[in-house]
Amino acid sequence: MSELAFKTAVELADAIRAKQVGCLELLDHYIDRVERHNPALNALVVKDYDNARKRAREADAALARGETWGPLHGVPISIKESYNVAGQPTTWGVPDFADNIAKSDAVAVERLKNAGVTLFGKTNVPLYLGDFQSYNDVYGTTNNPWDVTRTPGGSSGGSAAMLAAGLTGLDAGSDIGGSIRNPAHYSGVYGLKPTWGILPLRGHSLLDTVTPADISVIGPLARGPEDLAVALDAMAGADGPDANGWRLDLAAPRGASLKDYRIAVWLDQDIAAVDTEVTDCLSAAVDAMAKAGAAIDDKARPEIDPVRALAVYRQLLYAVTTSRRPQEAFDEALAEAAGLAADDDSPRARLLRGTTLHHRQWLALNEERNQMRWRWAEFFKDYDALICPISATSAFPHDHDADMDGRTITVNGKSVAYFDQIFWAGLFGVAHLPATVAPVGPGASGLPVGMQIVGPHLGDRTTIEIARLLAQEIGGFTPPPGYD
To answer: The pTM is what?
Structure first.
């Protein structure tokens, strides 16, 4: 059974259909692994074993009758704590919501179940999903399977750690500032940040809101790119009243081999330094793509100002993320913002201004964002994808300093502001573009490194396919040592 732990979800589904392993047998295998390895990782923080075993028995019985529920029939999965699962807590790591029990499944959870999965638990997050690490006062700290003194990323850090350690078959997270992409990078797995709006957010909420949040998306994490494609198909599509009229019809990948692709490369930016450990791995992967026949251009850039793009992203990000906070927190921000000097551009001042935007200001920023989206569309007429980093470094040591603005990371031997690395996530998040992160490490430290493959609007399948083709050249997911 141990050889099954690190298989992809597609491979596990194939093994179940071929009756090489039973649904309950496979679930119990993963549960046993969780019980052995999770104490050191703290990745799975909500366990739903009884309901999962009931579901697995039903999946076995259905298969015995010749029925298949979907492409992921019987595959055991976990999911990020921020998704509603009926009867289970949804806290987003916030102690005040420790007793918040979901009454129904999120739409995406329902759709994954319709694809056949067996859901057996929920994975850890940071407070309000707002960090590059995954720790909170409800569930504690999640550790990276490659080095437990380091972060597995955030906010979908529990999801990535589960996959890397071979404790689940598939997972799903969410992303507004790299929260799928940086955990995939730090933990050595695959992750998809889809085009904004194509996967329904309903049920990924503390307050049962139905309005999709700006920039925010949900999407899968996995051990193989094929899993991303299957999960995308399972989760995507119109929800609620929209389903009365529109249907999602994503284009097929733009090419069938790397020879078919024109790929731009952007590995460095003066406002967002990247460590050579990361750029060395990305450069080696780009070289492999060129050797396989891809047309590579490392000078191509969209006609946007990166500094302004980051500023617009930050303001829109702060506006949407702080809207989750209580009214009294907003009132305090209003009072503090009123006293800001006009030339104050400190991190605190930027946060306060984003938190307290007038609607007129938000509309102006949204217009700037959409102007950038049109420029990206022009760029992707000439290029099929853009390769770039997702984070400045490989996984960094845990840092729970309450003063986030005072935190730093070390990039090429120098201390850099903690949140500077958000540039590589925000540049594409604010423009609503899809991006797949694929493992291309390990780096010089022995830790995983991921490559961000960005595509045009609604070009999700192209980013996944390039990840799949790259894996054929350099290999894909590699398990960390010690989890046999």
So the answer is: 0.98
